């Protein structure tokens, strides 16, 4: 199997099972035009996030890592009328693009885009009494994955769902001696998942248009 075949299958899945959406298509186009890196989730992965939000019957979602707002729109678009999504983005230029994309999708009243390093913004959310969030999606600086997860635990409750993207790193996650901060940060996340008594978790490997990677899925089993 090859990257070409993985991408071909992803395109087939998206074409047949995940219908095109004008707001989402426009989000990708605007993000590309603004020079954002093409590291957003694939359409079928975005649909998975939306389904997870729906299965949890979520009303509140926290996203760590906004980029252009593609995954934001997938999740916010399935929230109930009184739902709320808070998304954290470190780069002001990316956040501005995301705000425009969210507004174009008609979700400006649902989504709150916060600008600044997440490890500075998360304590602010806690101080505000934000949460508890029903779903947390972590897709930001991989070196801080364990720190983000620890904050997610503080801002959730029993039954909440935490999803962490890009946790296989093309298989490099098995290399204990890797000099890559993203690999080491993800390994710290694995260790935390393995010893944290308040979650039930697993990690799934994936292949597709985004290459060889995977995601972690954790259900909070006890209140903070």
Summarize, please.
The chain has helices spanning 3-17, 22-33, 43-55, 70-76, 92-104, 118-128, 145-154, 181-195, and strands at 60-64, 84-89, 111-115, 135-138, 161-165, 199-208, 211-220. With 224 residues, it is of the alpha/beta class. Helix 2 runs antiparallel to helix 5.
Give an overview in words:
The structure is a single chain. The chain has a single domain (3-220), classed as Vaccinia Virus protein VP39 (Rossmann fold). It contains 8 helices and 7 strands; from the N terminus they run αααβαβαβαβαβαββ. The chain has helices at 3-17, 22-33, 43-55, 70-76, 92-104, 118-128, 145-154, 181-195, and strands spanning 60-64, 84-89, 111-115, 135-138, 161-165, 199-208, 211-220. The protein has a 7-stranded mixed β-sheet, with helices on both faces. Helix 2 (22-33) runs antiparallel to helix 5 (92-104), helix 3 (43-55) packs parallel to helix 4 and helix 7 packs parallel to helix 8. 41% of the residues are buried. The mean pLDDT is 96.
Q: Spans of 5+ residues with little confidence (pLDDT < 50)? A: none
CATH topology: the name is: Rossmann fold
Q: Give the class-level CATH name.
A: Alpha Beta
Give the helices and strands as they follow along the chain. HHHEHEHEHEHEHEE
Strand content: 15-25%
Q: Provide the CATH architecture.
A: 3-Layer(aba) Sandwich
| Rg, Å, rounded | 17 Å
Please give the share of residues in helix: 40-55%
Helices and strands: which structural class? alpha/beta
Task: Determine the CATH superfamily.
Answer: Vaccinia Virus protein VP39
| Strand order in the sheet with the most strands | 3-2-1-4-5-7-6
- Biggest β-sheet, characterized? 7 strands, mixed
Number of domains: 1
Oligomeric category: single chain
By DSSP (H or I, 4+ residues per run), the number of helices equals 8
Mean pLDDT: 96
First-residue to last-residue Cα separation:
44 Å
User: Globular, elongated, flat, extended or rod-shaped: what is the shape?
Assistant: globular
Kindly state the number of beta strands: 7
């Amino acid at each position: 199997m090859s990257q070409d075949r993985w991408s071909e299958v992803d395109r087939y899945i998206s074409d047949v099972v995940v219908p095109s959406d004008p707001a989402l298509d426009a989000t990708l186009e605007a993000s590309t035009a603004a020079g954002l890196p093409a590291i957003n989730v694939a359409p079928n992965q975005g649909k998975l996030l939306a389904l997870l939000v729906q299965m949890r019957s979520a009303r509140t979602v926290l996203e760590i890592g906004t980029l252009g707002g593609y995954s934001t729109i997938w999740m916010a678009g399935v929230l109930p009328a009184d739902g709320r999504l808070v998304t954290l983005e470190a780069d002001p230029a990316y956040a501005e693009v995301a705000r425009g994309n969210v507004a174009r999708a008609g979700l400006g009243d649902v989504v709150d885009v916060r600008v600044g390093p997440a490890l500075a913004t998360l304590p602010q959310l806690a101080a505000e009494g934000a949460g508890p969030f029903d779903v947390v999606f972590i897709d930001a600086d991989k070196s801080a994955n364990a720190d983000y997860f620890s904050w997610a635990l503080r801002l959730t409750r029993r039954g909440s769902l935490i999803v962490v993207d890009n946790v296989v790193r093309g298989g490099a996650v098995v290399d204990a001696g890797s000099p890559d901060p993203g690999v080491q940060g993800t390994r710290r996340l694995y260790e935390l998942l393995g010893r944290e008594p308040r979650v039930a978790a697993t990690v799934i490997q994936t292949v597709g248009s985004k290459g060889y990677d995977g995601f972690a899925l954790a259900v909070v089993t006890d209140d903070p």
